[in-house]
Amino acid sequence: MSSLAQITKELTLEELHELREEILSLSEALKAVPSEYDASFQQKMNRVLDITSEVEHHTRQLRNGIEQAQKASHASLNREIRDIIQQHHIDNQQMIARTISGYIPVNKGLFFASIIAATLIGGGIMGTVFYWLALR
What we know:
By secondary structure, the chain is mainly alpha-helical. The protein has helices spanning 2-10, 13-32, 35-100, 108-135. The chain crosses the membrane at residues 110-134.
């Protein structure tokens, strides 16, 4: 009965009204059918209900299978994208390392001397500018 209640909750009012009319017309038709056909009809209805239940079961299995396949596909695509991005990152780092390897001085003394020289030149320029500003 719980599955019937669940199905009726999912139907709209118009569909419930149509279903109620169909059930009433079927009950009136059953009153007109002789009792000997009643057993045969009951067997056929039970078979239809069994088939419907089986179709519903297969539908659930198919839906679950599709969801699992989508999740697996999504995870696989995420892994592939992450691997591609990581490979591009490594390639970019290697390219940058190759590009700037010729521009960075290997000698540390020369490197520090150039920094000190740049600092002195910059300080001299700044001192000159402030000296001229002070004289004005």
